[in-house]
Amino acid sequence: MTGLRYVYAVCRPFGTPLQSQLAGVAGDPPRLLPHHGLVAVVSHVPEADFAEEPLRAHLEDLDWLTGVARAHQGVIDALTTVTTPLPLRLATVFRDDSGVRTMIEAREADFRHTLDRLEGRVEWGVKVYLPADTESRSAPEPRREASAASGRDYLRQRSRQARTREDTWQRAEGFATRLHRTLAAHAEDSRLHAPQSPALSGAAGHNVLNAAYLVPRADSEEFVEIVDRTKDETENGAAGIRVELTGPWAAYSFVEPGETGESRKPDGEGEGRT
């Protein structure tokens, strides 16, 4: 198949084959392009969509971009099960194999340094949410009456509602702080990302904690068990608090921007979360 070269990631050589039915961006199966002891994972994409001008236009098309991001992430996820990939930025495209090799040579030192640092490690994402209706459920809306006494009662009830909401948020933030401290102690590194807006993430509720943890693959089962125990505690105690675990991911949050050209999760997870 002819076309441009779409590059998903750079990694070290590995012996386990990728899934036979794995399709990449534009439906072309990914292949391995070895060079200088490293491997670029690439597939062919059509110039009609990925040359500079059409690509610039497509990047304004959310539906098109979402499809590319899902295919891109599918390849990264498959790589993460068999090796430690260093994901490149969404829609990293070169004219031909020679262009990919030139890119590897230009960034070789950074690639090797980062792969050494992340070898055998994966990223887990943890989010804490309060229900979207926290404010409305805090207390019933008081009825307004015409009399001065009722007016004072109304203001007192509104004040109690405000204190209840504040108490709820403080408990949630305290829980999130303790959870982060516990999980960070069981991880090699951690990142606190800005809370995600429900309008952008599509998740229900107010995002109180949005964190990523770098965990050795061998320790991942223990890490997941710690999070699961926390979920049980919130279901039995902390009213309305929801803990969400995602992963294992390639270690997007722990790659310095200059190392891969601002490598980030194309679906937005953990501040990529492109």
Describe this structure in words.
This protein is α+β, with helices and mostly antiparallel strands and 274 residues long. The protein has 9 helices and 9 strands. It has helices at residues 47-50, 52-58, 62-80, 97-118, 134-137, 148-185, 198-201, 220-236, 257-260; strands at 4-11, 31-35, 38-45, 86-87, 93-94, 121-130, 189-192, 206-216, 242-249. Strands 1, 2, 3, 4 and 5 form a 5-stranded antiparallel beta sheet that branches. Strands 7-8-6-9 form a 4-stranded antiparallel beta sheet. Strand 2 (31-35) and strand 3 (38-45) form a beta hairpin. The radius of gyration is 23 Å and the shape is globular. The model is unreliable at 135-142 and 266-274 (pLDDT under 50).
The oligomerization state is single chain
Mean pLDDT: 84
What is the makeup of the main sheet?
A: 5 strands, antiparallel
Compute the CA-based radius of gyration: 23 Å
- How are helices and strands ordered from N to C? EEEHHHEEHEHHEHEHEH
Q: Give the overall form.
A: globular
> Helical content, roughly?
40-55%
Content-based structural category: alpha+beta
Q: Number of helical runs?
A: 9
Spans where pLDDT lies below 50 across 5 or more residues: 135-142, 266-274
Break the fold down into its secondary structure elements and pairings:
Layout: E1 4-11, E2 31-35, E3 38-45, H1 47-50, H2 52-58, H3 62-80, E4 86-87, E5 93-94, H4 97-118, E6 121-130, H5 134-137, H6 148-185, E7 189-192, H7 198-201, E8 206-216, H8 220-236, E9 242-249, H9 257-260
Antiparallel strand pairs: 1-3, 1-4, 1-5, 2-3, 6-8, 6-9, 7-8
Features:
274 residues, alpha+beta, 5-stranded antiparallel β-sheet, 4-stranded antiparallel β-sheet, 9 strands
